[in-house]
Protein backbone atom coordinates (compact mmCIF):
# COMPACT_ATOMS: atom_id res chain seq x y z
CA UNK A 1 0.00 0.00 0.00
CA UNK A 2 2.82 2.44 0.86
CA UNK A 3 4.25 1.93 -2.62
CA UNK A 4 1.00 3.14 -4.21
CA UNK A 5 0.69 6.12 -1.85
CA UNK A 6 4.22 7.20 -2.75
CA UNK A 7 3.36 6.78 -6.41
CA UNK A 8 0.37 9.12 -6.15
CA UNK A 9 2.50 11.85 -4.59
CA UNK A 10 5.17 11.51 -7.30
CA UNK A 11 2.57 11.35 -10.07
CA UNK A 12 0.76 14.55 -9.15
CA UNK A 13 3.91 16.43 -8.17
CA UNK A 14 6.06 15.56 -11.18
CA UNK A 15 3.96 13.66 -13.69
CA UNK A 16 2.57 16.79 -15.33
CA UNK A 17 5.91 17.93 -16.76
CA UNK A 18 5.29 16.78 -20.32
CA UNK A 19 7.02 18.25 -23.37
CA UNK A 20 5.15 21.33 -24.50
CA UNK A 21 4.23 22.73 -27.85
CA UNK A 22 6.63 25.65 -27.86
CA UNK A 23 5.48 27.99 -30.62
CA UNK A 24 2.73 30.61 -30.73
CA UNK A 25 2.08 30.31 -26.99
CA UNK A 26 -1.16 31.78 -25.75
CA UNK A 27 -0.34 35.12 -24.17
CA UNK A 28 -3.68 35.86 -22.59
CA UNK A 29 -4.36 35.92 -18.89
CA UNK A 30 -5.18 32.22 -18.86
CA UNK A 31 -1.58 31.18 -19.46
CA UNK A 32 -0.19 33.52 -16.82
CA UNK A 33 -2.70 32.26 -14.30
CA UNK A 34 -2.07 28.62 -15.22
CA UNK A 35 1.66 28.97 -14.59
CA UNK A 36 0.92 30.41 -11.17
CA UNK A 37 -1.61 27.78 -10.14
CA UNK A 38 -0.04 24.42 -10.86
CA UNK A 39 -1.97 21.55 -9.23
CA UNK A 40 -0.57 20.46 -5.88
CA UNK A 41 -0.40 16.84 -4.78
CA UNK A 42 -3.58 15.92 -2.97
CA UNK A 43 -3.36 13.94 0.24
CA UNK A 44 -4.78 10.45 0.06
CA UNK A 45 -8.00 10.33 2.05
CA UNK A 46 -7.30 9.44 5.67
CA UNK A 47 -10.95 8.52 6.14
CA UNK A 48 -13.14 6.66 3.64
CA UNK A 49 -14.75 9.78 2.19
CA UNK A 50 -15.08 8.81 -1.44
CA UNK A 51 -17.31 11.70 -2.43
CA UNK A 52 -14.77 14.28 -1.26
CA UNK A 53 -12.07 12.37 -3.12
CA UNK A 54 -14.02 12.58 -6.37
CA UNK A 55 -14.79 16.27 -5.96
CA UNK A 56 -11.14 16.95 -5.17
CA UNK A 57 -10.30 15.36 -8.52
CA UNK A 58 -12.62 17.83 -10.28
CA UNK A 59 -10.78 20.70 -8.60
CA UNK A 60 -7.38 19.34 -9.58
CA UNK A 61 -8.41 18.93 -13.21
CA UNK A 62 -9.38 22.61 -13.26
CA UNK A 63 -5.80 23.57 -12.36
CA UNK A 64 -3.97 21.34 -14.84
CA UNK A 65 -1.82 23.56 -17.05
CA UNK A 66 -2.80 23.41 -20.73
CA UNK A 67 -0.39 24.32 -23.49
CA UNK A 68 -2.91 24.45 -26.30
CA UNK A 69 -1.85 21.14 -27.85
CA UNK A 70 -4.49 18.45 -28.14
CA UNK A 71 -2.29 15.44 -27.42
CA UNK A 72 -0.19 17.03 -24.68
CA UNK A 73 -3.17 18.41 -22.82
CA UNK A 74 -5.13 15.17 -23.09
CA UNK A 75 -2.20 13.31 -21.57
CA UNK A 76 -1.88 15.79 -18.70
CA UNK A 77 -5.59 15.63 -17.94
CA UNK A 78 -5.81 11.85 -18.21
CA UNK A 79 -2.82 11.36 -15.92
CA UNK A 80 -4.51 13.40 -13.18
CA UNK A 81 -7.85 11.71 -13.92
CA UNK A 82 -6.24 8.28 -13.51
CA UNK A 83 -4.66 9.34 -10.23
CA UNK A 84 -8.11 10.22 -8.93
CA UNK A 85 -9.33 6.69 -9.68
CA UNK A 86 -6.31 5.27 -7.90
CA UNK A 87 -7.10 7.27 -4.78
CA UNK A 88 -10.68 5.99 -4.82
CA UNK A 89 -9.35 2.46 -5.26
CA UNK A 90 -6.96 2.88 -2.33
CA UNK A 91 -9.86 3.77 -0.04
CA UNK A 92 -11.81 0.71 -1.19
CA UNK A 93 -8.85 -1.60 -0.66
CA UNK A 94 -8.21 -0.15 2.80
CA UNK A 95 -11.80 -0.06 4.06
CA UNK A 96 -14.10 -1.94 1.67
CA UNK A 97 -15.67 -5.28 2.61
CA UNK A 98 -16.65 -6.82 -0.71
CA UNK A 99 -14.02 -9.07 -2.29
CA UNK A 100 -15.24 -8.44 -5.85
CA UNK A 101 -14.95 -4.66 -5.49
CA UNK A 102 -11.60 -4.93 -3.73
CA UNK A 103 -10.31 -6.97 -6.67
CA UNK A 104 -11.65 -4.36 -9.10
CA UNK A 105 -9.94 -1.66 -7.07
CA UNK A 106 -6.64 -3.51 -7.27
CA UNK A 107 -7.10 -3.79 -11.02
CA UNK A 108 -7.60 -0.01 -11.19
CA UNK A 109 -4.36 0.60 -9.33
CA UNK A 110 -2.33 -1.61 -11.62
CA UNK A 111 -4.02 -0.77 -14.92
CA UNK A 112 -3.93 2.99 -14.44
CA UNK A 113 -0.28 2.90 -13.42
CA UNK A 114 0.47 1.13 -16.72
CA UNK A 115 -1.60 3.63 -18.70
CA UNK A 116 0.19 6.59 -17.13
CA UNK A 117 3.54 5.13 -18.10
CA UNK A 118 2.34 4.88 -21.70
CA UNK A 119 1.02 8.46 -21.66
CA UNK A 120 4.30 9.87 -20.41
CA UNK A 121 6.50 7.73 -22.65
CA UNK A 122 4.56 8.60 -25.80
CA UNK A 123 4.96 12.31 -25.19
CA UNK A 124 8.71 12.15 -24.62
CA UNK A 125 9.07 10.83 -28.17
CA UNK A 126 7.19 13.67 -29.84
CA UNK A 127 8.82 16.73 -31.46
CA UNK A 128 7.60 20.20 -30.41
CA UNK A 129 4.27 21.15 -31.94
CA UNK A 130 2.55 24.43 -32.67
CA UNK A 131 -0.39 25.59 -30.61
CA UNK A 132 -3.61 24.00 -31.85
CA UNK A 133 -6.18 25.79 -29.71
CA UNK A 134 -6.45 28.59 -27.16
CA UNK A 135 -7.11 27.14 -23.70
CA UNK A 136 -8.96 30.27 -22.58
CA UNK A 137 -11.42 30.19 -25.47
CA UNK A 138 -14.62 28.65 -24.10
CA UNK A 139 -16.08 28.50 -27.60
CA UNK A 140 -13.29 26.34 -28.96
CA UNK A 141 -14.61 22.84 -29.85
CA UNK A 142 -11.83 21.05 -27.95
CA UNK A 143 -12.34 23.16 -24.83
CA UNK A 144 -16.09 22.61 -24.96
CA UNK A 145 -15.70 18.84 -25.36
CA UNK A 146 -13.27 18.60 -22.44
CA UNK A 147 -15.54 20.70 -20.23
CA UNK A 148 -18.56 18.55 -21.05
CA UNK A 149 -16.59 15.32 -20.53
CA UNK A 150 -15.54 16.26 -17.00
CA UNK A 151 -18.76 17.99 -15.88
CA UNK A 152 -20.29 14.93 -14.10
CA UNK A 153 -17.44 14.99 -11.57
CA UNK A 154 -18.82 18.23 -10.17
CA UNK A 155 -22.21 16.79 -9.21
CA UNK A 156 -21.76 13.17 -8.17
CA UNK A 157 -24.82 11.15 -7.17
CA UNK A 158 -25.79 10.69 -3.51
CA UNK A 159 -23.54 8.36 -1.52
CA UNK A 160 -25.37 7.37 1.67
CA UNK A 161 -23.27 4.22 2.16
CA UNK A 162 -22.18 1.61 2.78
CA UNK A 163 -18.68 2.28 1.46
CA UNK A 164 -18.70 -0.57 -1.06
CA UNK A 165 -21.90 0.76 -2.64
CA UNK A 166 -20.49 4.28 -2.70
CA UNK A 167 -17.31 3.06 -4.37
CA UNK A 168 -19.17 1.22 -7.13
CA UNK A 169 -21.44 4.24 -7.67
CA UNK A 170 -18.66 6.82 -7.87
CA UNK A 171 -16.33 4.69 -9.95
CA UNK A 172 -19.05 4.60 -12.60
CA UNK A 173 -19.02 8.40 -12.67
CA UNK A 174 -15.24 8.47 -12.80
CA UNK A 175 -15.05 5.96 -15.63
CA UNK A 176 -17.84 7.61 -17.61
CA UNK A 177 -15.89 10.88 -17.58
CA UNK A 178 -12.71 8.98 -18.47
CA UNK A 179 -14.37 7.41 -21.48
CA UNK A 180 -15.66 10.82 -22.61
CA UNK A 181 -12.19 12.35 -22.18
CA UNK A 182 -10.58 9.54 -24.18
CA UNK A 183 -13.11 10.00 -26.98
CA UNK A 184 -12.04 13.65 -27.26
CA UNK A 185 -8.49 12.45 -27.88
CA UNK A 186 -9.73 10.02 -30.52
CA UNK A 187 -11.48 12.87 -32.34
CA UNK A 188 -8.72 15.48 -32.05
CA UNK A 189 -5.41 13.77 -31.29
CA UNK A 190 -2.63 12.97 -33.72
CA UNK A 191 -0.08 10.93 -31.74
CA UNK A 192 -0.59 7.21 -32.54
CA UNK A 193 0.52 5.96 -29.11
CA UNK A 194 -1.87 8.32 -27.34
CA UNK A 195 -4.77 7.47 -29.60
CA UNK A 196 -4.13 3.79 -28.96
CA UNK A 197 -4.07 4.48 -25.22
CA UNK A 198 -7.37 6.34 -25.58
CA UNK A 199 -8.95 3.38 -27.41
CA UNK A 200 -7.80 1.05 -24.64
CA UNK A 201 -9.20 3.36 -21.96
CA UNK A 202 -12.59 3.46 -23.70
CA UNK A 203 -12.67 -0.32 -24.03
CA UNK A 204 -11.48 -1.14 -20.51
CA UNK A 205 -13.46 1.47 -18.62
CA UNK A 206 -16.70 0.72 -20.43
CA UNK A 207 -16.25 -2.94 -19.46
CA UNK A 208 -15.59 -1.96 -15.84
CA UNK A 209 -18.66 0.28 -15.77
CA UNK A 210 -20.74 -2.75 -16.68
CA UNK A 211 -19.16 -4.74 -13.85
CA UNK A 212 -19.99 -2.01 -11.32
CA UNK A 213 -23.55 -1.85 -12.64
CA UNK A 214 -23.96 -5.62 -12.29
CA UNK A 215 -22.60 -5.49 -8.74
CA UNK A 216 -24.97 -2.71 -7.76
CA UNK A 217 -27.93 -4.60 -9.23
CA UNK A 218 -26.97 -7.72 -7.29
CA UNK A 219 -26.28 -5.77 -4.09
CA UNK A 220 -29.02 -3.13 -3.69
CA UNK A 221 -28.36 -0.67 -0.92
CA UNK A 222 -30.62 -1.17 2.06
TrEMBL record:
Residues 1-19 form the signal peptide. It comes from the Bacteria. The keyword Hydrolase does not apply. Residues 71-216 form the DUF305 domain. Keywords: Signal. Residues 24-45 are annotated as: Disordered. Residues 24-34 have a biased composition (Basic and acidic residues). The keyword Magnesium does not apply. This is DUF305 domain-containing protein. It comes from Hymenobacter ginsengisoli. The lineage of its organism: Bacteria, Pseudomonadati, Bacteroidota, Cytophagia, Cytophagales.
Amino acid sequence: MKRYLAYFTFLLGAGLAFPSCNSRHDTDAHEQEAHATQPKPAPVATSPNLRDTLQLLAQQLDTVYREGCWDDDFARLMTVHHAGAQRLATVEIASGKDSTLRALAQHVLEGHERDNHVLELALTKQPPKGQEYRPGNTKDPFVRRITAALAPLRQPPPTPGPLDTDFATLMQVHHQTGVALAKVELDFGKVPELKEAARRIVRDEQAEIQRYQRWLKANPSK
